[in-house]
Amino acid sequence: MTASTAAPAADCARCPRLAGFRAANRNAYPDFFNAPVPSFGALDARLLVLGLAPGLKGANRTGRPFTGDFAGDLLYATLLKFGLAEGEYRADPQDGLRLIDCRIANAVRCVPPENKPIGKEIAACRGFLEAEIAAMPRLRAIIALGRIAHDQAVKVLALGKGAPRFAHGAVAETGKGLLLAASYHCSRYNTNTGRLTAPMFEAVFAEVTRRLGGPAG
């Protein structure tokens, strides 16, 4: 399986509301990417960072997950700190930043109105995440950013009634050779309200990289 089989087509119409929102944004912002945002990083990575969905003026603009908005500032700074990326993050997909033993994906691949996908849209995108995880032969850990991403991972991994509940900082063995870690989403709202601080966020990555024995370059 290749990366392309785990990604929706540029004109994906599975979710009419999201397809309509993309079309409206093409008119309003013709220079934006305005398509399902592909994942970033190699398929042979051991760590998958799973976000919610592209931000309107972040990944939906630039075409790279978490690139161009505040959430990306915190995420990429953290990846660089823990050796999971190299280079300089400049909020530009042409900045040359490279991920190391890490891949970034979103539970929902298209930008939703008000950053809020609805249940049937989350479900419609689940198959892409299933294909992506199936295409990652060395995957050993998932860090889910936010409850929706966490719940999507739980469903894709078919963890059933014994599935770990979402709680910031929780790291669970899934029984399938994978760790599932949870963090509050690194959104501006969460950091501005103090719900999430940089040390809290970094602690999740510190624990997961410790269990992985550090990134495999």
Number of strands: 8
Number of helices: 8
Name the shape in a single word.
Answer: globular
Report low-confidence residues grouped into runs of 5 or more.
none
Major pleated sheet: 6 strands, mixed
Order of helices and strands: HEEHHEEEHHEHEEHH
For the biggest β-sheet, the strand order reads: 1-5-2-6-8-7
Q: So, CATH architecture? A: 3-Layer(aba) Sandwich
Mean pLDDT: 94
Number of structurally distinct domains: 1
Q: Kindly state the percentage of residues in helix.
A: 25-40%
CATH topology: Uracil-DNA Glycosylase, subunit E
% residues in beta strands: 5-15%
Terminal Cα separation, in Å? 23 Å
CATH homologous superfamily label:
Uracil-DNA glycosylase-like domain
Structural features, described:
The chain has 217 residues and is α/β, with parallel strands linked by helices. It has a single domain, classed as Uracil-DNA glycosylase-like domain (Uracil-DNA Glycosylase, subunit E), CATH 3.40.470.10. 34% of the residues lie in helices and 13% in strands. It has a 6-stranded mixed beta sheet with strand order 1-5-2-6-8-7, with helices on both faces. A two-stranded antiparallel ribbon has the order 3-4. β7 and β8 (179-183) form a beta hairpin. The mean pLDDT is 94.
Write a compact overview of the structure shown:
This protein has helices at 16-28, 59-62, 70-81, 119-124, 126-134, 147-156, 188-192, 198-212, and strands at residues 40-41, 47-51, 85-86, 98-99, 102-106, 141-145, 171-173, 179-183.
